[in-house]
Amino acid sequence: MDMIRDLRGAVEAALDRRMAFIGGPRQVGKTTLALSLLGPSATTRHPGYLNWDHPAVPPVLRRGLLPPDAPRIVMDEIHKYARWRTLVKGLYDTEKGRRQFIVTGSARLDHYRKGVDSLVGRYRYFRLHPFSLPELERATGPDAGHLAALLTFGGFPEPLQARDERMLRLWQRERLTRVVREDLRDLERVREVSLVEELVDALPDKVGSLLSVKSLREDLQIDHKTAERWITILERLYVCFRIPPFGSRRIRALKKQQKLYLWDWSMVPELGPRFENLVAAQLLKYCHWQEDVEGHRMELRFLRDTDGREVDFVVLKNRAPLFAVECKTGSKAISPAVRYFADRTSIPAFYQVHQRDAYLQTGKITIIPFARFCHDLHLP
Domain 8-127's class? Predict the structure, then answer.
């Protein structure tokens, strides 16, 4: 599925003034996006494409040598080099005005930029997400089967295009093996790789519920600090993400416990949590788009009080709540928790989203199909 991604225009615009950093999970399409910026038919053989994993590239880049006839340079996975930040800074400062630079990586480039010298002011950071329902429809046209395909095969281009469950299982195993065995080795000091693999295997069953680090610690027989560190590393490597609770003054809201979701929601075994994970990914993509492209400060949270009433998500813009979202795969009646929080919080709109047709609007509450929800809110 090598169609142009929605993020391409924003990256193109940023290159007029700065470098563009593109982060995101392994195999989400970062290289394809970057190559499209080199030219409509560019491949990994293009002289402007420099992959740090290729044995011929590191010695050339370390000497500061660039291909002479390449006005745009893509440096892929260069964050695996311990001094990548200094190297990129030197190349940019020397060549700016003559060349444009795109830096891609499957780990958080905004995290792995440690050192004395600063790249602040020299780059824009963009996060490329798996395909969402709106992006898939813009790329291939409306189709009643798109949502079912996303729920089954996830939003990563290769399995989504193939739509073969056997191939999906093989792809999932290979991708996670490379993340844990290669990216973890290259970027972090973790000796107990097999235990990290056990942790990754346990995460799909944790989606949608309050995450208990204590339970993970006991299952893996490690201390709390180590369990927390490993989850944080997996977040940096785009395996999972966590969202915190939203505290409202008029309810007894949770303060600390978080919920966890996967970037590849196709790994979640049960339909209800998998649909919730898909919606979480869509809302996170919206938040990241608003931050990376529009410059707003965004937050994705959930709403739960000490009596167990919960609404799955709250989206905040510049610290003010925009709307809340509850996910449903069964009953189309308004959730009691949605009614309760709509009456007692300042959140201006509540949406209860469903996989299939269901529409009702009453006061601050709207029951709506997920596809229409994405369309009406102009989600990316």
Answer: alpha beta
